[in-house]
Amino acid sequence: MSSIAGSTRTERTFLFKEGQLVTDVNCKAIFDGDHNEIERANLLTKTIVRQYLQPSAYQQLAQNCSSFILHRGYITIPMSEMEREFPVAFSILMYKDIEMFERLLRAIYRPQNLYCIHVDAKASDDIFNAVVAITKCFGNVFMASQRIRVKWGKLSVLTPELVCMEDLLHRSSKWKYFINLTGQEFPLKSNFELVKILTAFNGSNDAEYAVRRYTA
Fold it and tell me: Which of UniProt's keywords are assigned here (predicted)?
């Protein structure tokens, strides 16, 4: 067995055995579309009292980086050789909801990737300081070099992306693709699945756009 496979098993053991609020949900059945299990999980979400962490709590937790990384469940090794050889660069543009942002980062984090985080200039100091504290725990996660006051529907929506693209290029030229996210998104694919898809793209891009039809 390779060292990567052995370490991966150790990493996954923690993710599925400790620190989970719900331990009796059949995750495989949910992913397989079992309606009964999905309904049962929905009922559980209404009975479990969640404790929402404030920005100050994240700032305090991130003072001990090794503990933060371990107990929040971050993946700290490449999960496959394919992923190791195919680093991806991400930007995350966020404004509010530090808990949602941290959950997103935790889901997409892999040590071979790069992550540029932009916090809207309109965000509170508590939010900004909490994000800074989190990024300091990782060598491959960093704050954007400029903070932009983003206005929806204006060019300022694009500017943070350009800032992050430039910052990422200055950090490393080894990443293969750039993916831009907001703090309110969540991935539907694992990093391994993303890498397989991006490999199939073979250097091409996937960008959505709308064509306006003008009538006289």
Answer: Glycoprotein, Glycosyltransferase, Membrane, Signal-anchor, Transferase, Transmembrane, Transmembrane helix
